[in-house]
UniProtKB/TrEMBL annotation:
InterPro entries: NAD(P)-bd_dom_sf (IPR036291), Sc_DH/Rdtase_CS (IPR020904), SDR_fam (IPR002347). It comes from Paenibacillus thalictri. Belongs to the short-chain dehydrogenases/reductases (SDR) family. GO terms for biological process: bile acid metabolic process. This is SDR family oxidoreductase. It comes from the Bacteria. The keyword Oxidoreductase applies. Keywords: Oxidoreductase.
Length: 255
């Protein structure tokens, strides 16, 4: 028995054209899943879809605003028209800002909360209800951050939004368990990506390295194992409400 075989499963990756989301999409596709790559930049999404195909998987690009209920409802309908099923939902849209706390305007605060938190809630409502009503189980994987539990300086709103994602993950794990729909979160440490490069000054990088026992950044491919594990009903059938840390030991440190 192959614990990590996702053949016949359909995985919807919202934010699938991002650096980390795209790499995890490739991991799922490489293990047999049909992958719906969801993003608003069609060119970036198609690049990810092509990488999935090169890994041996099947992929299709879909466009949706992750903060729009109407877009997500249409996305669900379009994916069902494509493969007839949804087995895995991965929520990985992300927005960050280094605005000092006293300078944060509510427009910026609301924008980050919309992308990082509201999108997760909406997707879990729309896709989660489909999974629950279908009665065939499923896996929802939310992408959190190490700053969700140990708030990181300079990124107040981002940290608060990811803390809420952890809470939502555990709440829904309990709510969806009777329908065999598992809800977990991956908690990445520091993986240089487009959204966080602007806050990675040399001093900050030095501080991160001193706080990371493995003394390096993560590589995007190092998230694939956790993604495939949580997507697989065989490998993680009794795993729900878990926060899976992929952080080089960052959260194991205190001082």
């Amino acid at each position: 028995m192959n614990l990590f075989d996702l053949t016949g499963k359909t995985a919807v990756i919202i934010g699938g054209n991002s650096t980390l989301g795209g790499t995890m999409a490739v991991g799922l596709g490489g293990h047999g899943a049909d992958v719906a790559v969801v993003g608003r930049n069609a060119e970036k999404s198609e690049e990810v879809a092509q990488r999935v195909r090169e890994a041996g998987g099947n992929a299709k690009v879909f466009s949706a605003d992750a903060t729009s209920a109407d877009d997500l409802k249409q996305l669900l309908a379009d994916v069902l028209a494509w493969t007839g099923r949804v087995d895995v939902l991965m929520n990985c849209p992300g927005k960050n800002s280094a605005t000092p706390f006293f300078d944060i305007q509510m427009e910026e605060y609301d924008s980050i909360m919309e992308v990082n938190l509201k999108s997760v809630v909406l997707a879990c409502q729309i896709f989660g209800k489909h999974m629950v009503d279908k009665g065939e189980g499923g896996s929802i994987i939310n992408i959190s951050s190490v700053s969700s539990e140990i708030p990181l300086s300079r990124v107040f709103t981002y940290s608060a939004s990811k803390a809420a994602v952890n809470n939502v993950t555990r709440f829904l794990a309990r709510e969806f368990a009777p329908a065999r729909v598992r809800v977990n979160a991956i908690v990445p440490g520091f993986f240089p990506a487009e959204q966080n490069r602007k806050i990675l000054s040399p001093d900050r990088i030095d501080s991160i390295m001193r706080h990371t026992p493995m003394n390096r950044f993560g590589e995007a491919e190092e998230l694939q194992g956790a993604a495939v594990y949580l997507a697989s009903d065989k490998a993680s059938s009794f795993v729900t409400g878990s926060l899976v840390y992929v952080d080089g030991g960052y959260c194991a440190m205190t001082i």
